[in-house]
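User: quick one, fold this
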Amino acid sequence: MIFGKLPRLAVNWFSQAEVFKRYWDQVMNVIEALDKDIIVIKAAPITVADLASITTYNRAIVNDSNSTIFADIVVGGGTDIVPVYFDGIDWRIG
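Assistant:
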């Protein structure tokens, strides 16, 4: 019994260019998804005294802190520029 040539199994359904394009599209989709999660904070430094007037944000940058120790309550009168956050009661360095 003669079988002839058996069909070759399709190991690679796509050309290398097509595989690369599909891979690249997936990479770009992941990058676009990551970009949506990135938050950029652009803020001009303010003084500690001006923190009392902030009611809508819970982060700021002050330019007259007297300490740079993380989670300390921020006190003005110094020369340090630090990021601060509002913990619900006090503005803290961090």
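User: anything notable?
Assistant: The mean pLDDT is 78.
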